[in-house]
Amino acid sequence: MSDTKREVTLFLPGLLGPRLPEAAERICEGMTLGALETLLSRSTCGSRPGEDESVEGMLFELFGHARARDADWPAAAVTHLLDAEGAKPGWYVRADPVHLRADVREVILFDASAFIIDEAEARELAAAASEHLDEAGCTLEAPHPARWYLRAPEAHAVRTHPPSAVVGANLDEFLPFGQEGNRWRRLLNEVQMALHASPANAERERRGELPVNSVWLWGAGTLPAAPEALWVHVWSDDTLALGLARLGDIACDGLPANAAEWLSRASPGAHLIADDRAYGCARVGDVSAWRTLLQALERDWFAPLGAALRAGELVSVTILTDRGLVHRCTRRSLRRWWRRRQPLSVWMTRDE
Questions:
Q1: 0.90 exceeded by the pTM?
Q2: Which residue of 41, 68, 71, 132 has the fewest C-beta atoms within 10 A of its own C-beta?
């Protein structure tokens, strides 16, 4: 690639909406998505090179990481780079504050996106949980109200699931597992009892807010080595994406407001834009919010990026979703007028 050219990969989990193939046409009815549909229909489409199906795993793979056998993606150690100054070496696992709600048949998890917790509450609740965790040889840190960490001097043989896999689902199949799985499940029970007795939770309930009655363990491991950089710049509001960029010594910034701003700031080279807002809507089935977001993405991103591609300002625009397909569109492929534009509902129902 010429040193004066730019290419961009958009990682947009949730772009293809909730997994409701029988309702795809109805969900998309009335939406105007000509630029997105053109990019998808005239692109070269193939399977992504990685194997992981979780959004967190896809991010690691986008940065060139390979997961160790029988291990988590070490998300905790990576995001800790952003959340804590002077991070200490060791084994980390996220212990994020959550609300668990039980009904007759199942227990449902609500992560911090479903409630508000301030720094003072986080410190008080983390202190309540720390007594039991300290006994297990772990130190609990709450450098961010919604992101807590357990650190241990040595690794533990436990596997976990990221919260993105379990929000709104039955938890029975997603509890810690592996050689030390039973021990960590018992530890969680003790933490839940401590949080239940916390005055901070009593005050939250008095205000009509969801109590923080558990933590969710995920992303266990030590800080991995950084592979060779695949991007010159990463743009995202996602903590894991920014942590992976920092680990790889890659320039990174928050998500620009629109493509015009990005085009004015982007240097030559390969760029990654990671935006998981649609995923948050899709995974809980919020069709109205998803439709509103897609119309905004069409106006602010897909239309101007398509125009920049036609004008030769970009070498390519690549779109990757959580469905496993990669769509790479170039200026030349945009001229494939014989490829009829397919509505988004077709791509929503296409097999991976």
A1: yes
A2: 68
